[in-house]
Predict the 3D structure of the following.
Amino acid sequence: MVLLAAVALIVATPFLSNYYVRVANGLLIYILLGIGLNIVIGYAGLLDLGFVAFYAVGAYTYALLASPQLGLHLPFLLIVVIAACVGAITGILLGLPVLKLRGDYLAIVTLGFGEIIRILMNNLDWLTGGPKGIARLDKASIVGIELARPTEIYWLLIVVVLAVATFVWRMEKSILGKAWAAIREDQDAARGIGINTTNAKLAAFATSATIGSIAGVIFAASQRFVSPDSFALQESVLIVLMIVVGGIGNILGIVVGAAILILLPEVLREFAEWRILFLGLLMIVLIIVRPSGIVPRSFGPEKLIRGLFGK
Amino acid sequence: EDVTIGLAGPISGPQAYFGTTWHNGFKLYIDKLNAAGGVNGVTVKINQQDDQADPRQGTLVAQKFCDDESVVLGLVNFNSGVAQSTLPIYEDCTMPTMTFGSNPALTQQGYKFMVRPVANDFAGALLPAEYALQKLNAKSALIVNDKQVFGQGISEIFGKNFIAGGGKVLDTLSIAPTDVDFSAVLAQIKSKNPDVIYLGAVMPQLALFAKQMHEQGVKATLMVPDGGYTPEFISQAGQVNVQGATVAVQAPPLDATPAIADFAAQYKAKYGQDAGPYSIYGYAQAQILEAVLKSAKGYTREDMNEALHNVKADTAIGQLEFDDKGELKVAPSYLYKVEGDKFTLIGTK
Amino acid sequence: MLGILIQQTVNALTIGAIYALIALGYTMVYGVLRMINFAHGEMFMLGAYAAFLTLTFFVGDIGGAGALVLSLVFAVALIAVGLAGVGIERLAYKPLRTSNRLAPMLSSLGVSLSLVTGVQIMAGPQPVGFPSFFPATRIDVFGGTVTLVQIGILIAAFVLMAALYLLVNRSRAGIIVRAVSENRPTAQLLGINANLAISLVFFFGPLLGAAGGILYASYYGIMSPTMGAVVGLKAFTAAILGGIGSIPGAVLGSFILAFVEVGGTALLPILSGGILGTEYRDVLAFAILILVLLVRPAGILGEPVSEESIVYKREF
Amino acid sequence: MTSTTSRPLLKIAGLSSGYGRVGVLNAIDLEVDEREIVVILGPNGAGKTTLLNSISGVARATAGSIEFEGRDIVGSRPEQVVRMGLAHCPEGRQIFQRLTVEENLVAAHIGRGGKSFEVLRNDVFELFPILKERRNGMASRMSGGQQQMLAIGRALMAEPKLLMLDEPSLGLAPKIIQQIFRIILDLSTSGISILLVEQNVQLALECGDYAYLLNTGRVRLHGPAQELAEHSAISDHYLGGATEETIHV
Amino acid sequence: MAYPVLGSSDDRAHHRAPLRHRAKIVRAGKTHSGAFRQMTLTFEKLRKQYGQHVTIDDVSTRFEPGLIHGVIGPNGAGKSTLINMTAGSYVVSGGKISLDDKTLSGMKKYQIANSGVARTYQNIRLFDQMTVLENLEVCFYPAHVGQVWREILWPPFAAKRRRERRDVCMELLAFFNLQHYADAEAGSLPYGRQRMLEIARALVMNPRVLLLDEPAAGLNHHETAELTARLAELKTPDRIMIVVEHDMDLVMTVCDRIVVMHHGKLLFQGTPAEVQASADVQLAYLGTANDLDDIKTAAKDRRTQLGIRARRRS
Ligand SMILES: Nc1ncnc2c1ncn2[C@@H]1O[C@H](COP(=O)(O)OP(=O)(O)OP(=O)(O)O)[C@@H](O)[C@H]1O
Ligand SMILES: Nc1ncnc2c1ncn2[C@@H]1O[C@H](COP(=O)(O)OP(=O)(O)OP(=O)(O)O)[C@@H](O)[C@H]1O
Ligand SMILES: CC(C)C[C@H](N)C(=O)O
Ligand SMILES: [Mg+2]
Ligand SMILES: [Mg+2]
């Protein structure tokens, strides 16, 4: 039932008006970001408040390689690969210095990292266009199929989100995912059983950064304009919130969290400031009622699948 | 019969004041218009949306207007940064817009469906540079900007004009848009001793800077762009701290002509507070709309667009018409000086 | 040259003192509840608004208020914000004491968002001018300009910080608060009213923040609903830099951060030969934060956590 | 002097309790007379700690009564219970690691019986000279045995009439355990009643007056300590041969 | 000889076959290099100090394979510190720890673990919110991480891996009588079972050095007896077992050799009988028979002095 409804919704959305498709696209991008960040926060238990940096890296990679800014016009798929690599490298670069840090110290350093990236984007005018950003990005296309209109981006996002979610889910179930869980529970004990926590954490940072970066590419390709404004600190916080409200460490939870935090303000658009107040209060209530998220960690995709197919 | 106009601007958040008062100016005239039976029997409906000065929200609003068949014209986006993202969307759905963002680049991207009913920043930064060189006999200027689209853009133009006129720009310093403490920057400036300081930023930074500048004993003349054209600039800085500072803005003084004074009185009567710095533009835009409706062949988006590009409107701020890029043919620009608790007009172009 | 040096030192000290007042609140709350209170910046903002409100409500004409009336007004505002802090803790954090560590932190984000929008709705979103209470007297010291406001801020900040230090380290209440912060169940077993101790922290933390807010607003002559966000983040950074949970650490971190900011503005362009402008000031600040934490992962004065001695289990 | 006539200091009747919805204890009856040392024995998870927690108000009683000096204390919060003169020295010492030795004592002084902090502290220092020696040192630097002494000293700061000790010998060297038991005897002599939870059956029964054996949340056996020490059921119980019926010795 | 299995008593024969199977898996992984050679753990002039405070002072000794070594000593003598240094949790301040020719001191904690050193903690440290089974499975990380990409991308391979891990772990769980808890959260287990699980976790990778820090602390007599039996069964000719413990019954029963620590120094080492006989050890740690008598006397004195005769309760 639920599955049918979900599929119906997914298929029906592109036939609605473009506004809804755009809203859905925004939602899907946040889901993608949530899945990426959740690897670091939900699986490995590292509080990363600078995730938006990777998102920015991906977006700017696309902007620089497919716009008049540098006169480059590389194909979309190639840029996705490049951005994934750049993202992974940035992830490792951030990961390396912060591995020794715990909890709140990690949070503030990642936050600082995110801010540093944003400030650089805002000030390296010769490269990034500074606050003006980069406009007139190429339309994306894959093997001749153009991906520029909201519906086209929508299908691209659906495919990417499903693929990434499956990948990340399998990752969680693998021995690496178990190691992340162990690090989250007790990092020192994890070392004591022979887990190279440095490598495992770097793997988490790199994967998460890669996903963030890919989300950035798609975001840039759909907006066809990037500027530092889109990568403010609040975005990172919003993604963390999505994860926690929905259910830490759980892909389904992210979908729910994103739906609440992204769709609700859209639905309540008429109420201007009151909706933000409402959202703030709702957040408090939700967290008090369900401190570890609406969807519990144990209710993962496998439970859903098992529930759906009656086994 | 009626037509719907989409209004998008910051209605919540820190820039809400600008957005609401601008829109209120528009509504003020439209209400009068509708009350009088509309234009040729056509009344105007308003669909007002909040873009929070955020490009992402702006694009959603743009899409919403595009999807809504009944919306035939947009009065959109106070901020250049937002307009930058939304204009392609409006272009795609052939929606004519009157854009408020003042960054010169907006009209240079070949958009066919936009006009800009205000002076762009070229105009906004020319007057002060000339004034500084000719009236103040300034030899050197120092530029401070907030590294935002508007602040950086307009201060760069000021710099170019100032140098072109024979002046010397000593240095360009940047501040973060959230800064409130400029003491360190000012200490720096003091040692350079410029004749004028051009500050490309918005309120409340303009006021804070003016205040601290005076308190730290920096003697240069402060020149600021249009964001400073509000009584808050004087009250928040403290009257003594802003004497002599100049403000360049596209708006005429509220008592400049009888038409404007009349507008100001109506505004105050209707909303119970003084008109905002951009309210007069909202009002004038409504008058442009009136002219468009009069001359349009029909009320489709295409027809409206054609009429908009060819309009000659008599407004409270004079007769307005657009060139082929959508820029005002004659864009009035005014320069004021703070004297006491008032802005005194010292130049116009 | 000496003038600039003195000038910049005074500037840094003033900024540092304001950061410190706020950082102390972060540190106190963290010390007791191991929680980052993201709504703390809003206490700072509420301080300014509360003072403004009491002032206009009770005194009416702001200009004519005497020193006694003013101090009374401030006391009322501080206590009001302190009580608000206690109330917020009861409503939004207390139910989450036993849940994972992220929950109260995010609840505080919700509180922060609600407070900012609440004030925006009630008082308007735009910044409001705030009266200055110190005469705008300027004193010239070897070429540098020091205002009375700056001196006032420094004195007020140091008095408040010293009082807090004594309260926490010398008084029985302080010892109790520290005991509760370390082990709440045991503290209760020993007859300590833990809720009272926590309320105490949530009274004094916001109170200090509010004091910072009032000083800040009258120094810069302005207040706005969002003023807490930026300063709050700075102060939080300072608290981490100094070692969160440590009171001297918060003060030290605040002054270091202030000097880095001021120094960064003044020196970055010179040191980099003009390549890096003042816009890179925050990059410098964060870079220094990261470097310090690389050498001392628990901050400058934070207690280093030895792996086996303290069982450091899951964080959320 | 036999205390048969005297009213019991602590009287628990039909107590059931647990944590949240988890029930742990079931219909417990237990009494402590004045100046007695009452021992509670039982395997892990029997509910010994829960019993002490229920008395001091940490675990919630769902049925039954707990009377201390004739007053029902069910539903009182821990800090109120302490103020009535019932101190609880918790399992695993739980001293405040980041406070100094003396600060640990300050934190625990609630000024119940009217004695000033200095007087009480000096009493504790007299009992445990090592604490005086290390008074300004960080508590975390002390060895396990010293920490246990601090934990007991801290409980004494509340001037209790009844002191509840939860496995004070846990993780201590045999020699230190003997020291701790001596201290318990001394405390009792000085007029404090003691409720002692212990795994060290032999020593506990040697020093105690009356003993209860708990298993799976029920009292399985009780009687005077000396008699219980000789009872074969004790060793049976400890080796897991659970007897369902309560045995009176 | 054949791969040494846990325990040797014949009534445990049913454990044996699958455990051989396990040996294969463990060898297939990369945890240990080469054949199972006997190795010796050596401490040379080991030191540990915090600032000026010396907690381990010039300790030199050898731990032979095939034996269970007890480490006893008063609280704060430095027993846990020794374990922590060996496992790499504490940095060594001076001296050297080596496993045959391999120097452990200075290596990272996880490298030491992967050299075959496994441990338990004085305060139980399980992965509380993971299931019992997962607590053991995750120990395969060092051996299996090399092929993690295959595991993620190729479901049949993942299934195979999961089966391999599960088989070994269930085996160990059965050995410790934990099989019924396999899917329970580790943190929800009764205390005694948690202790057993922690030992099981240390055994997954078939370590050559097994360090147990107070495994009997908090266990009741019944559980201690169970533990004693298991420890004896875990003894294999090439395994070095070190047990820090205050429970003298357990130590004296199960240990072949005992090291006594006092004030960070080696006070004595020898067989259980020698240790019990040593006057030094009695004075420093065990307490003498006289001490025990003293308590009994004191208890009696108290009863007579206070005149307490316990009231019998109904
Ligand atoms: N905070 C708690 N919440 C829920 N259940 C608990 C809690 N504490 C203990 N229990 C459960 O209550 C039962 C009794 O535990 P208790 O700690 O009272 O036993 P005990 O006799 O003191 O054992 P030990 O000898 O291990 O100290 C156990 O099954 C335990 O799992
Ligand atoms: N982080 C630390 N800083 C300072 N001293 C420490 C630290 N950790 C341990 N010590 C000291 O080292 C000494 C040895 O401690 P250790 O934990 O090894 O004792 P132990 O023999 O295991 O005692 P127990 O039987 O009580 O567990 C103690 O005096 C302790 O106070
Ligand atoms: C003055 C401003 C706040 C905005 C300006 N009109 C812009 O283009 O962004
Ligand atoms: Mg217990
Ligand atoms: Mg130990």
Summary: The radius of gyration of chain D is 18 Å.
